[in-house]
TrEMBL record:
One of its GO terms (molecular function) is N-methylhydantoinase (ATP-hydrolyzing) activity. Residues 520-682 form the Acetophenone carboxylase-like C-terminal domain. Residues 4-177 form the Hydantoinase/oxoprolinase N-terminal domain. This is N-methylhydantoinase. GO terms for cellular component: cytosol. GO terms for biological process: glutathione metabolic process. Residues 197-506 form the Hydantoinase A/oxoprolinase domain. Keywords: Hydrolase. It comes from the Bacteria.
């Protein structure tokens, strides 16, 4: 038997999905933040122990190891070699003000301290002509310095190396012979803009050793267990095949060897799995324009797509540091089920950015002491304390209420008096927590859509993650979105998404020139060069030529602009650019010269993926066994008798009138008063306002 395992390691829970070609098994475990590979291995063992025999299996997972290393400042000690005279590019940056009206704007620390940034005598022109050959003797004199400083990894970023990488190749070979892990900018990001290229290369170098250690530790433990549980034949098969793949932030997956070359591709990879799953669900349901909202325990991630095109960007940022890799456009905010509630110095209620995480977690998990969004839902009656995670975790309602009362008495005495007593004060506090959280998420959705000339009212809202379904109706009402979609297994959606992803690699090459100056054959030659490189890489990933797909894009701008619009390559490029510019910025100028900036290639290796099972459409009335019972739930501080349903007992065609709560193993979904939900043939919930 062949099985595929999808894993998503989040800040609060680690989610597992196993697909054996016919059925799906699910598992949700608390994340192990100190050694994430331990939680990964233990979950895989628990799931695979149910199989007596296996012919082969594949693991695909999104990891936050690289992301956390950057955010926590725990990357490998790294040195930077750059063109002499440009040692401070990394520190100067772009001079953008993150807080426009802040009198004393803060700046993130430079990724590499000044004493580890070295200038090398060499120079190449923007056309790629060598005007000063590299002096490797100057590099050789610095080796003792690197050893003295215990440098583990080296980044190399020379000026105009994207036009001619000969000097980077020479120094890269020299340093690798000395035993260092080396990241070369022309291999990591072969584009102009030296700051973004340097920052991207440095980030890649910093997390390279961290990712390598994580992968080596995970693979070593897996190999030992596979040999003892299933025998050496399966172990030999796993060693030969790319059985362990990693999710990338561009929406594709890649083998361990591919990730070792470019570990930065793992940054923000977890949320990308959810967007890929959402796109697959949308295709099956015939939805063209979808905003996605993934609300987990620590954060909420927002993205969107129109048709087959998921929104992508090359202007990534993590912890205040820029990186230029092609990634899915995802806006992350610190608003999750575990976001901690506090009162600021001015007496205003705040939610986040700190999170209770998996340990101690929310109050209702039994150990936490701080109020969280999850606790507020429990106070309002929206969570079943006996059915959380299918009954694996019993929520402590009494303790949660006591700590809410204590919070109100200590920090909100005037509010209690205004509301008319402690009970109303607690309910009002819980509702206020949800209102603030909804406002933060609504702003994130507006930022993703309105800033790009799109109206959220023209989209459907797909909510997932363990907490997404709790907020869908509130967000749709606030933004005027007509339809909410809650897919099956929403709390495991990102782990499902990695099993719905293909192998994807991105390639780029910068060439700044007037569009009209190009002959079609010259543009073809650029793309053919990128395709040759892509074909070689996909073959190394085990993808035959019959399953290789290539998409061509060009970044364009009006001459004199400092920003670009990326468009699919076509013979109508000029017209399409003017139209897109007007859609995005409200104007276009047909008289202005259009420049090319970067040629891009997206290479896809199509792999066999799971499909969504279809169910028969039956009657509107749910089966009696689907109804758990009716209990009081608060909506906007008013108590409503609310029906609770077990989602696994619902059938296609069932119609549920709000207020209602639909519970399942991985999540809970709320149907507000005035809304109704229907179940489609794939088991998805479609929620809309009653007419």
């Amino acid at each position: 038997m062949f099985v595929r395992i999808g894993v998503d390691i989040g800040g609060t829970f680690t989610d597992f999905v196993v697909y054996d070609g016919g059925s799906i098994q699910r598992l949700k475990r608390r994340s192990t933040s100190v050694r994430p590979e331990e939680g990964l291995i233990e979950g895989i063992k628990e799931l695979l122990n149910s199989f007596d025999r296996l012919s082969a299996f594949e693991i695909v997972h999104g990891t936050t190891v690289g992301t956390n290393a950057i955010l926590e400042g725990k990357g490998a000690k790294t040195a930077l070699f750059t063109t002499k005279g440009f040692e401070d590019v990394l520190e100067i940056g772009r001079q953008n003000r993150r807080s426009l009206y802040k009198l004393g704007p803060s700046k993130v620390p430079c990724l590499i301290p000044r004493h580890l940034r070295f200038g090398v005598p060499e120079r190449v022109t923007k056309e790629g002509e060598v005007i000063e050959a590299i002096d490797l003797s100057a590099v050789d004199t610095l080796i003792d310095k690197l050893k003295e400083e215990q440098v583990e990894s080296v980044a190399v970023s020379f000026l105009f190396s994207f036009a001619n990488p000969i000097h980077e190749k020479k120094i890269g070979l020299f340093l690798r012979q000395k035993g260092y892990q080396v990241s070369l900018s022309h291999e990591i990001l072969s584009e102009y803009r030296e700051y973004e290229r340097t920052s991207t290369t440095v980030l890649n170098a910093m997390i390279g050793p961290v990712i390598s250690r994580y992968l080596e530790g995970a693979l070593k433990s897996l190999y030992q267990w596979i040999a003892s549980r299933f025998g050496h034949r399966l172990l030999s098969h796993c060693r030969r095949k790319s059985f362990f793949r990693i999710m990338q932030s561009n929406g594709g997956i890649l083998s361990v060897d591919g990730i070792r070359k470019k570990p930065l591709l793992t940054i923000l990879s977890g949320p990308a799995g959810g967007v890929c799953a959402a796109a697959a669900v949308a295709r099956s349901c015939g939805l063209e324009r979808v905003v996605t909202l993934d609300m987990g325990g620590t954060s909420t991630d927002v993205s969107f797509f129109v048709g087959e095109e998921m929104d992508r960007t090359t202007e990534g940022e993590i912890g205040g540091y820029a990186f230029g890799s092609s990634i899915l456009s995802i806006k992350s905010i610190a608003a999750g089920g575990g976001s901690i509630v506090r009162v600021d110095a001015g007496g205003a209620l705040r939610v986040g950015p700190q999170s209770a995480g998996s340990d101690p977690g929310p109050i209702c998990y039994g150990k936490g002491e701080c109020l969280t969004v999850t606790d507020a839902h429990l106070i309002l009656g929206r969570l079943l304390d006996t059915f959380f995670l299918g009954g694996q975790l019993r929520l402590d309602r009494q303790r949660t209420w006591q700590l809410f009362e204590q919070f109100c008495q200590q920090k909100m005495a005037e509010y209690i008096q205004k509301e008319g007593g402690i009970e109303k004060g607690v309910i009002g506090l819980a509702q206020g927590i949800l209102d603030i959280t909804n406002l933060q998420m609504a702003k994130a959705i507006e930022l993703m859509t309105v800033s790009k000339g799109l109206d959220p009212r023209d989209f459907s809202l797909m909510v997932y993650g363990g907490a997404g379904g709790l907020h869908g109706c509130d967000l749709a009402e606030a933004l005027g979105i007509p339809l909410i979609v809650v897919p099956r297994d929403p709390g495991l959606f990102c782990s499902l998404g990695v099993l719905l992803s293909d192998v994807v690699k991105d390639y780029s090459f910068s060439c700044i020139r007037s569009l009209e100056a190009f002959e079609e054959e010259e543009i073809e030659s650029f793309f053919r060069k990128l395709e040759r490189e892509a074909k070689k890489d996909l073959e190394e990933e085990g993808i035959p030529s019959s399953r290789q797909l290539f998409s061509r894009y060009i970044d364009l701008r009006y001459k004199g602009q400092s920003f670009e619009i990326s468009l699919p390559y076509s013979t109508r490029l000029e017209r399409e650019f003017h139209q897109k510019h007007e859609e995005r910025f409200g104007y276009c100028d047909w008289s202005r010269t259009i420049e090319t900036v970067t040629f891009r290639l997206k290479a896809v290796g199509v792999i066999d993926k799971m499909t969504f099972p279809r169910y028969p459409i039956l009657g509107e009335t749910p089966r009696p066994e689907a109804l758990i019972g009716t209990m009081p739930v608060y909506f906007q501080k008013k108590q409503w008798p609310t029906s609770f349903y077990l989602r696994e007992k619902l059938e296609g065609g069932n119609r549920i009138v709000g207020p209602a709560i639909i519970v399942e193993y991985s999540a809970t979904s709320v149907v507000n008063p005035g809304f109704e939900a229907t179940v489609d043939c794939y088991g998805n919930l479609f929620i809309s306002k009653r007419t």
